[in-house]
Amino acid sequence: MAKIYFISFIFLITISNSIPKTQSFVQTISPATLGLHKPQKLSHLRFYFHDIIGGKNQTAFRVASSPSTNNSPTGFGSVVIMDDPLTVSPESNSEIVGRAQGIYASASQSELGFLMVLNFAFIRGNYNGSSLSVLGRNTVVSAVREMPVVGGSGLFRFATGYAKASTHSSTELEAVVEYNVYVFHY
User: Fold this and answer.
1) What is the number of other CB atoms lying within 10 angstroms of the CB of residue 60?
2) What is the DSSP letter of 66?
3) Tens of pLDDT along 54-92?
4) Rounded to a whole number, what is the distance in angstroms from the first to the last CA of the chain?
5) Which chain regions cross the lipid bilayer (predicted)?
6) CB 66 within 8 A of CB 75
7) CB 125 within 8 Å of CB 96
8) d(CA 117, CA 120)
9) Burial of 185 (C-beta count, 10 Å sphere; 0-12/13-18/19+)
10) In the prediction, which pLDDT does 13 show?
11) Residue 7: φ, ψ to 5°
C-alpha cells in the first residue's frame, strides 16, 4: 500500500512540474477595465511647429555629431534635441497649444533625411497633459512628409495614426512646419 502512495506521490509531483507556471508579472485583463469598450474616435489635429536652431529664443540644440558631420552635405550623424512650441497658426506669437519635445538625427548620407523621435505634449483645453508619440523618417525637402503616430497618453491612450508635415516657411535659423495629425483613440 505504501508503494502505491509513493508512486502516486511521484506521479503528482511530475505532473505538477510539467504544468506551465503563469508569470507573476503578467495577467490577462478585459479591455473594458481600461475604457476600451467605447468606440474609437478619429481626431484631426492641425498645428504649427517652430524649430529655432539659433538666436536668443533657440529651441533646438545640436548635442552630438560625428567627425565627418561638417564635411557631409546632409549633416549625417548630427543629433539635435528640441523643445519646440506648437502654435495654432504659423505666426510665432500665436497661441501655444503644446510642445514638440524629442530628438531628430540626420540619418541619410544622400539626402536631408531625419530620424524623428518626438512627443507632441499638449497644454490647452481638454488635451492638457495628453501627448502623442511620433517615430519616423522625415525627408525635409519633400513637400509633404508622413510619419507614424505610435502611441499616446492621457486622452490619446492607445493612439495610432499618422502625421503629415509640410514646411510652411524656412530661414537660416527657423523652420515653421505645418502638422496635420490623424489619430484613432478611445
Assistant:
1) 21
2) -
3) 999 999 999 998 777 778 888 899 999 999 999 999 999
4) 63
5) none
6) no
7) no
8) 10
9) buried
10) 61
11) -65, -40
Q: How many residues does the chain have?
A: 186
SS3 state at 84: strand
Q: Of 162, 163, 161, 166, which Cα lies nearest the Cα of 177?
A: 166
> Cα–Cα distance between 38 and 15 in angstroms, integer?
43
Could you say which residues of the chain have pLDDT below 50?
A: none
In terms of phi and psi (left: phi > 0; alpha: psi -120 to 50; beta: otherwise), the region of 125 is: left
Give the CA count within 13 Å in the CB-facing half-sphere of 30: 5
Q: Quickly count: other Cβ atoms within 10 Å of residue 132's Cβ.
A: 29
Neighbouring C-beta atoms of residue 27, cutoff 10 Å = 7
Q: Which residues pair with 36 in a beta bridge?
A: none
Using CA atoms, how far residue 27 sits from 34, 59, 78, 171, 181, in Å, is: 14, 42, 42, 52, 33
C-alpha cell at 76: 549625417
Its sign, for the CA torsion 141, 116, 36, 26, is positive
The residue type at 28: T
Q: Which DSSP category does 34 fall into?
A: G
Of the candidates 125, 185, 127, the residue with the CA atom closest to the CA atom of residue 151: 185
Angstrom distance (rounded) from CA 114 to CA 174: 16
